Amino acid sequence: MSSLKLTDGAVTDGVLVLGLSFNPNKGSALSIESGSATVDAKTLLAQLKELGATGKSDEVIKIPGTRTKLILFTGLGATSKEYAHETLRRAAGAAARALAGSSEATFALPAPDLASVAAIAEGAALGAYAFDEFRGSTKSDRKLPLATIAIHSKFSKKVEAKHALKRAQVIAQYTHLVRDLINTPPSHLTPDSFTKKISAAVKSLGGTSSSLKVSVLNEKQLKSGGFGGIIGVGQGSANPPRLLHIKYSPKKSLRTFAFVGKGITFDTGGLALKPAAGMEAMKSDMSGAAAVCGAILAIASLKLPVTIEAWAPLAENMVSDNATRPSDVITIYGGKTVEVLNPDAEGRLVLADAIVKAQETKSLDGLIDVATLTGAQVVALGTRTSAVMTNNEDFSARFIAAARESGEAFWPMPLPQELRASLDSPVADLANIGERMGGMLVAGLFLKDFIKPEVPWLHLDIAGPAYNESAPHGYTPVGGTGVALRTLLRLVENSIIR
Ligand code: BES
Ligand code: MN
Ligand code: ZN
Asked: What local confidence, expressed as pLDDT, does residue 498 receive?
């Protein structure tokens, strides 16, 4: 984890990070954007021109410095009087990624307001990430993430700027935890070890002295407790399922939210076995569980005056003589029966148990489930935009507004009632699959069946955005991304000030 600090003086050491933009109305003329730092723009621009710089986003250009060891230009895209916070976040992230192996860099990017300072700090800290835990003989060849991030700002003496840096630090710390969990191979991340890793993170944050309490139901307790969804999905695996519960209950609490995250530590598809090509990405099928755990820890770390209950139903969806068969009927916690027509539609089964359990908490201000639920999500919205489905348009609008602020792409999707009939089963209360077309919405409608109408509910399908299988970009590495954590945090923050 890199350390963050503020500065406003002359930059005389390490690396200087500057912004570079182009003016589309002036023949793509380049501009150096150095924020509160002064630089010899004329000389640098002449050099950048010779280098063929464009200033486009995700472009990174390094040149030797005169006062510093190195100057790094990070692309901001089209020249603007006020850069979007997400533009700054991404530019800072791309720079930080390119500075792996460096000890210190000073980010002098355009930051006219505190929110811009926060975005730069966040982007840089999120970009400074590596996952090398499972490298053996090649581990020593790997570069460490950028160690110290200094943000050059005219606000450096302000207490608000210090708070913004603290928040960025917390976001990065727990986003990195979420990414680590996602990237950890299923040989080393089972339902049981997931609960242990989270318990350790809770403990190092102070445990009960931080108003946090963890409890875990094991397979025996799940069976006797009537959690037929988690048991049904997990029974084919030698690594038995768990239900992880984290409660954050500070003395002062203005709101109560429940978070529920899908925690399939590996999804083979069960007896509806997935094709081998690409199956390795299914180690990321616990991204929702990781995100809700990361979010509650970030919220607790920032000591926000809200009560949060996070639930992570954890199971491994495997093939065995004990695996759930197509046509098996299971009983979800609370009594509804489900005919399992397709054991690969397992996420909704474990979520149903946890969603019903989560609603035993009285007067929830909202329940949000987060899940890598359907391939249809990726077909509909691509790999970088997540979906939001709801029974409460106002709650959804507030979430989408929070997403715009956090820089995460979330888009509203409908839950058309006419698709619900496709989930009717000839033998049970409902089936776990329905109409193939609109599969993301059908999955949302399945979950909606388990939501009390009076509970404001959001279903976030993050199947594509949770796991980056292509090239790194901005502050996003290859592998686990940590998506949803920042918007959950922002939503909670907004709920206490608005
Ligand atoms: N974990 C998958 C969904 C998924 C697909 C996540 C691609 C990330 C990337 C989920 O459990 C699944 O297998 N869903 C099925 C549902 C179908 C059987 C109704 C799917 O989307 O194909
Ligand atoms: Mn599946
Ligand atoms: Zn799955």
From this structure: 65
